[in-house]
Write a structure and sequence with these properties.
- The protein is of the alpha+beta class.
- It has twelve helices and 38 strands.
- The strands form six sheets. Strands 7, 8, 9, 10, 11, 14, 15, 17, 18, 22 and 23 form an eleven-stranded antiparallel sheet that branches.
- A hairpin with a 5-residue loop joins strand 1 (22-26) and strand 2 (32-38).
């Protein structure tokens, strides 16, 4: 306790030492700092900015040299002529919470927080809340006054990113299913989706920009450097399908807080292993959670787009789940027109007879969607949802996949959260497709198992492009999209769908470890799994999808990645390469194995060609190392279990 009081006092003095010039907040581990400053001297300066810095190995790096601040409300401007009124007393933040699914089952975080009060010339109040975490920084706006309703006409938040900063960014699209582009500068000027990954010119610091704790009182946003190639400004959503012009503006009611603007900062391992997006988000609103059970599901859509119309196909995928020990199977589109030997009720009865729990798909992302696939629009209102969830509970269905949102407008944010609220009342798990990327909601609503928001294996059905782009794309996703939350890529396909893949069997097997999703859909047809060698089949029977810990072992976005994940006393390792053959030595002394314990290592690597696997069984300990060879577009998977 004495240490904590001293530390807070130290921050307090450093904040106030030069109030008229700048305010500095430092993380508990002293690595990250966020600094508030203005372009004029004195407290009456009008426009305010932030700088983020990172200190490690006796060196301080200016991560983001300037973040422009401000909001324009329908009644007045909160970006200029802001007078600094007060810098509040620093607060020490330390949280300790459990997570049902995700990177870690036990999450902790530490931060220091200050609230800085401003007022406009008309005496309207604006607070800026800053937090410096051990793995990044976060800030949000607050209108503290007790009443009033307004439109936010613009948010001026903008991140200055100098040229020669390497970046991995995805062109914004409403379904968030693009490829990441790799660039050294900002010469491509357009709208970009979250999250965005950057590597500083000195190459010694990485940072990832995102937003979190989005609620009904705002819209989702995106980034745009259209006006200034080195300045990525927060932008509001556009009108649907080209109807109307410009951005759709959010309406707010006071008191009000914005979503957190989150910047994860540090080494590349800090980015990948961070839970900061969840850490800043609101705690769970669901008291009883034993019905929320992560797991693997069989899924027939990838191999047969109309598979759920066939009772026989549905039964075959229930058999697959039972054979592999997976708890779930998903009935995708057209289950309401099932034939070929049975109807929906017959299929559900068969699924239950196998000890498997059914999940069901809905085309109900909103009345804007042009997609006619059935069943359609059964979740649009509270009354619709109560009726549908009541039916599903009677049928023994435990979760729903809801598709085709493709919007981040404020009314769509309300719709997402209303679905989660109603689903929780019926103890129904949910996952969203054709949707936004995670904003920390899985902490608030742990029944939200996963999101799509990614160009996944389904794109092998959409055209020939993914055949050639998938190998590199797969090595980028663990550093970008999957950092911020669950990702329903629908991985681990060995056979081909409408267009072939050129990733090796070892590459595909590794995706079961590399890609995290609270409901993991393994997408291949039954024979794709039945014909695997015993070791690979056993691996897929046992590999978890909700984890206790995560370690990035090595890798670079777009080149390769090797990652370890822990479940109980067991560890699983997955590694993939993009477009080059790779040889690497994996040292097991990365801190994740227990000292003095022997482990049985099952190592499944590429064989002589991309459809062959090679298996080794070894006894290892923390001092051991393992040599791996990966084919071009190859990979490997391994499990480590204590020797009893």
């Amino acid at each position: 306790m004495r240490f904590r009081i001293f530390f807070i006092g130290f921050i307090y003095l450093s904040v106030f030492s030069a109030l008229s010039q700048k305010t500095v907040l430092i993380s508990p581990n002293h690595k990250n700092s966020i600094e508030l400053f203005n372009t004029q001297n004195g407290q009456n300066a009008g426009q305010w900015f932030l700088t983020i810095k990172y200190s490690a190995h006796s060196k301080t790096t200016e991560v983001v040299p300037k973040i422009t601040l401000g909001l324009v409300r329908s009644d007045q401007d909160f970006s200029k002529e802001l007078k600094l009124i007060k810098v509040g007393k620093p607060i020490s933040i330390r949280e300790d919470y459990t997570s049902i699914h995700g990177k870690r089952s036990h999450c902790t975080n530490s931060a220091n927080e200050i609230t800085i009060a401003f007022e406009t010339p008309s005496k309207a109040k604006l607070n800026l809340i800053l937090r410096a975490y051990n793995d990044g920084v976060a800030f949000r706006y607050e209108f503290p006054e007790k009443s009033g309703s307004f439109v936010v006409k613009d948010e001026l938040t903008a991140y200055a990113v100098p040229d020669s900063t390497k970046r991995w960014m995805e062109k914004f699209n409403p379904a968030n299913e693009g490829l990441y582009s790799t660039m050294e500068d900002g010469k491509v000027q357009q709208d970009w989706g979250y999250p965005a990954l950057f590597n500083t010119p000195e190459k010694d610091c990485w940072f990832l920009i995102h937003e979190a704790d989005l609620d009904r009182n705002y819209c989702g946003t995106k980034l745009s450097n259209s006006a200034d190639k080195t300045n990525y400004k927060v932008m509001f959503p556009d009108h649907w399908n080209g109807r109307g012009k410009g951005e759709v503006l959010p309406s707010i009611s006071l008191p009000w807080k914005s979503p957190w603007r989150v910047v994860i900062v540090g080494a590349l391992s800090d980015i990948v292993e961070s839970t900061l997006v969840d850490d800043v988000s609101s705690p769970s609103v669901i008291a009883k959670t034993d019905w929320i059970q992560p797991g693997v599901a069989s899924w027939n859509y990838w191999s047969d787009n109309h598979g759920t119309r066939s009772y026989k196909t549905v039964c075959a995928f229930a058999d697959l789940a039972a054979e592999m020990g997976w708890p779930y199977t998903l009935l995708d589109w057209e289950w309401d027109s099932m034939a070929d030997g049975g109807k929906l009720e017959d299929a559900l009865k068969y699924i239950h007879s196998k000890g498997i729990k059914p999940l069901m798909w809905y085309n109900s992302g909103g009345d804007h969607t042009w997609v006619a696939s059935s069943p359609k629009d059964r979740m649009l209102t509270h009354e619709n949802r109560v009726e549908e969830f009541t039916k599903l509970k009677k049928l023994g269905v435990v979760g729903v996949k809801i598709d085709f949102f493709e919007s981040e407008k404020q009314d769509m944010i309300k719709y997402y959260l209303d679905i989660l609220d109603d689903a929780a009342k019926f103890e129904m798990m949910v996952y969203f497709h054709g949707c936004l990327v995670p904003r920390g909601w899985a902490r608030t609503y742990p029944n939200l198992m996963t999101y799509e928001g990614v160009r996944g294996a389904e794109w092998y059905n959409n055209g020939p492009e993914f055949t050639t782009t998938a190998p590199e794309h797969n090595t980028i996703l663990p550093f970008t999209r999957n950092v911020v939350g669950a990702m329903d890529y629908t991985p681990v396909t060995f056979t081909n769908s409408q267009f072939p893949h050129i990733t090796s069997y070892g590459h595909e097997l590794a995706l079961s470890v590399l890609f995290e999703s609270g409901m993991q859909h393994f997408a291949d047809r039954p024979e794709g799994y039945y014909t695997l060698p015993d070791a690979a089949k056993t691996f897929l029977k046992n590999v978890p999808n909700a984890w206790d810990n995560i370690k990035l072992l090595d890798g670079t976005p777009g080149t390769d990645i090797t990652m370890a994940r822990q479940k109980g006393n067991d560890w699983y390792i997955g590694g993939i390469s993009a477009n080059n053959m790779r040889e690497k030595r994996i040292k097991l002394s990365f801190g994740f194995l227990t000292e003095g314990v022997k482990y049985k290592l099952t190592l499944i690597t590429d064989g002589k060609h991309d459809k062959e696997l090679s298996t080794q069984y070894l006894v290892v300990d923390k001092s051991s190392s393992v040599d791996i060879k990966m084919l071009r577009r190859g990979g490997f998977a391994a499990s480590l279990k204590p020797v009893l």
